[in-house]
Amino acid sequence: MARNLRTSEPSPPEFALPQLRQVLLVFLLLALPGLTGCAAEGAAQAVAQAAPTPADQAEFEEIRAAAKQLIAGAKGQAGHPMEGKRYTGPFVHGAGPGCAVCHEHAADAADGTGPETWTPSRATCRPCHAQASNPDAIRTTHSADYDGDGDATEPLASELDALLADLMTAIQSSSRTTGSAICYHPERYPYWMKDTDSDGVCGDDEAGASNAYEIWTEPMLRASCNYQVVSRQRGAWAHNFDYAAQLIIDSIEVLGADVTRYARPE
User: Fold this and answer.
1) What is the DSSP letter of 1?
2) No. of H helices and E strands in the chain?
3) Distance CA 112, CA 120 (A)
4) Cα separation, 63 vs 41, whole angstroms
5) Measured on CA atoms in the order 18, 19, 20, 24, is the torsion positive or negative?
6) Digit-coded pLDDT (tens) for 15-63
7) At 167, phi and psi to the nearest 5?
8) Are 5 and 22 within 8 A, CB to CB?
9) Are strands 215-216 and 3-4 parallel, antiparallel or unpaired?
10) What b/e string do you get for 158-179 counting C-beta neighbours within 10 Å, with b at 16 or more?
11) Every domain of the chain and the residues it spans
12) Against a cut of 0.85, is the pTM above it?
């Protein structure tokens, strides 16, 4: 059942248990960034508006913390795992633990991007992935066609991008059943807005807090949380591809879309 989050609270006799559960779910998903990571970047962005330089570092720390949470898989509880599903545990990189195994601090400083970016370096990847032209082309032992497009050799980043696109389609399709279409803008807080012209994208006049999306169903909340967590990490495919793909596929499924063509990592 859809619920407008800005409507007044119903009288006590009408406030049934399912409605109470939904209000609590909204609180947990959107108001407590430490639990799911869904609102963490919103908090960092709010700081950035007040103090640009310190906030850049604060936002970087938020992103790094989110990456560590995703790497931990089921133990990190990144995003919103679905009930009744099994999720993979921590991703253990063959070359050893630690961010510096893949991210070369010195190389970042040398090419001018700054030490805080921790851009993946071909030099650090080459010893184990000599066949890859760049870090994004790495696939290693994953051999299934996860996104169901018939190509089981494309980079894992491409597999994840296709799954994310399908999840966005499912979220937008689900929003139309509530009577209020939704759109997403990765750079404008609170990211999810009302798609007033129903064109599937957040235009400049739609992308803002005053146009925040208000009507949510529980599946949409869970799915949008997982979309945000995975899509905001450029390295999600490397940090823990299996867990990220599981979150996305399960989110598509909970929205009622067909997932039979996907190969869910186990």
Assistant:
1) -
2) 9, 4
3) 14
4) 8
5) positive
6) 344 444 444 444 444 443 333 336 433 333 333 333 344 555 566 567 6
7) -65, -40
8) no
9) antiparallel
10) bbbbbbbebbbebbbebbeebe
11) 17-94+143-178+216-254
12) no
